[in-house]
Amino acid sequence: MSAAHPAVRMARLIRVPGPASRAMWAGLAFIVAVLALSFLLPVLTGQGTDEFVAEPLLPPSPEHPFGTDQFGRDLLVRTMAAARVDYLIGAVVIVWCGGVGSLAGVLMATVRRAGADWVFSRIIDASIAFPLTILVITVGVILGPDFTVLGLPRGLPSVLLVYALIGWAYYARLARSQALSLRSRDFVQAARTMGYSDVRITMRHLFPQVSMVTLAYAVGDAIVAIALTSSLAFLGAGVAPPTPEWGQIMYEGRDLISTSWWIVAFPAMMLALSGISLAAIANGVIKRIEG
Amino acid sequence: MLPAVKRPLRALRDVGVVVLLVVTFTTLLMQFAQGSPGRAILGPRASQDQVDALNHTLGADRPVIEQIGSSLAGYVRLDLGHSLSNPEQSVAGLAAGALPVTASIIGLTLAISLVGGVLAGLAGALSRPSVDRAVSAAAVSILSIPPFALALLLIVGVAIGLGLAPAGGWAGSWPANLSYAWLPSLALSGLLLPQIARTVQQRARELAGEEFIEAGEARGLSRSRLTFRHILPNVLLPVITIVGFNASFLIAGAVVVEAVFGVPGFGQVLSTAVSERDYPVIQGLALLTAVTVVLINFLCEVLYVVADPRTRVAS
């Protein structure tokens, strides 16, 4: 098909205007701050994420900056605590999907037998054909509503399982094309002339280069996985209440949106700001790698 | 054989293999329940007899190879099994009922995104830098809002606030459906339109500096002729790639946006099935949507060959 891989182009599309490095550090600061608040806020305020702390449906005020929901829970605490679950999903996509995908893609580009490459390419085609939300729901029903593992909130295991099993395929494609274009570059040719083995060239020379770029793109895509997970709440699936998760909070507030706008507005704002921050980080890293 | 024939033929063979793999994956999904999906679906309070009966209905008590074989045999006859909550209702029938609704939402989304995205992109690339920056900034902002959140915003702003459209529902007949369909489609366009706009913008900016455009200018061609006859066709190629790449995200987005607006498409079938833990319906939809994505990708590949004369000569 066309020259640049679609995922490459996707990440370039979300390029944030302005100086790349300043935007990158601002984005990183935002993510770290939200993550810190997600753990600190319930402790500092002494309000649990599922606790009746004030009158229901209070608009934003100095005591409750994000207001309260219909159960009288503080929405600042809940919205921030939701980052634990939502950023965990993002982290799995970046570390696991980006890492495994890079490895698979580099191996595909290195194997000598064309048949193996073809078989792997078809497996990737089939994997990424499934709309992820529908696949998560399918696995969720099969695992049952009460299934949980490693102390994760109910509903989260099926999300993580599907992303772990399927998500790498998106990056394997990207890494494969990256590795193929790197193979003809001088430093790989030089390593080959030195008599290094294929395994060594793959693992020591190709993989570090390819995985850095792939991981950077995975950072930019993490928000897609988070948004897909949030949207599951609207289909009656996803992370089960009362665990705070942005989509779940928005779903609980959807019928009250014209009177109590703050229930939906703040999680939506957090999703958008997280997305912009992750895009800025990805963009900054890619610019640094590409020089 | 001519490359123009050979390439689609090879792609068609690949499509066959991918569909086969999709069927295998879908059947293997049941293995997550460690042999007893019936227990997982019915819960711990159900009797063993009920669980065994459901496992038998689902075919989960047979060897995996046999399950894949019989699923395949069924799919060839367009038999996707029957709903658990209403055994009279076939999954294929449910899907066929919802398909026109979802297809029209996605079709309208494609139309809005293509027209809006191409125009916005061209406008950005070919006018003053301030317009260029405004288009980029708008695209980035809209892309960072997921479709279901955009749907909620549109319900508050456009449906409730301005009263320009119903806040949800479906008329059931055309063209009356259009007043119900345009707002969900607009929400879903938030996913595709900015990507198309940015792609067109970047490509058009690159093209504006190319020699054949300068040659056209030198021949005294008008601005609109240059834009629509010379730049536009070249810009459409990456747009085809973008649409193909987003096929599965569009379907996933449509399902959720439909659920938000209460439109009786795949979204409603799916959320009903989730609340009733109706596994065959969910599995059938997963399979159907995945096969649709494979076919859309194939279609985009063919379109790409048709639209780009170079791929017909080369490879």
Automatic annotation (TrEMBL), chain A:
Entry-linked Pfam families: BPD_transp_1
Keyword entries, A-Z: Cell membrane, Membrane, Transmembrane, Transmembrane helix, Transport
Domain of life, per lineage: Bacteria
Location relative to the cell: Cell membrane
Family under the similarity heading: Belongs to the binding-protein-dependent transport system permease family.
Gene Ontology cellular-component terms listed: plasma membrane
Coiled-coil ranges from the UniProt annotation: none
This protein's name: Nickel ABC transporter permease
Organism expressing this protein natively: Sinosporangium siamense
Gene Ontology biological-process entries: transmembrane transport
ABC transmembrane type-1 domain: residues covered: 83-282
Membrane topology (UniProt): Multi-pass membrane protein
Membrane-crossing segments per the record: 87-111, 123-143, 155-175, 213-240, 260-286
From TrEMBL, chain B:
Domain of life from the UniProt record: Bacteria
GO biological process: transmembrane transport
Ranges annotated as spanning the membrane: 12-33, 105-126, 138-160, 180-197, 235-261, 281-307
Domain ABC transmembrane type-1 intervals: 99-300
Gene3D superfamilies (UniProt xref): MetI-like (1.10.3720.10)
Annotated Pfam families: BPD_transp_1
Membrane topology: Multi-pass membrane protein
Cellular component terms per the entry's GO annotation: plasma membrane
UniProt cross-references to InterPro entries, sorted A to Z: MetI-like (IPR000515), MetI-like_sf (IPR035906)
Signal peptide feature range: none
Keyword terms, alphabetized: Cell membrane, Membrane, Transmembrane, Transmembrane helix, Transport
Xref: SUPFAM superfamilies: MetI-like (SSF161098)
CDD domains: TM_PBP2 (cd06261)
Sequence similarity: Belongs to the binding-protein-dependent transport system permease family.
UniProt-recorded name of the protein: Peptide ABC transporter permease
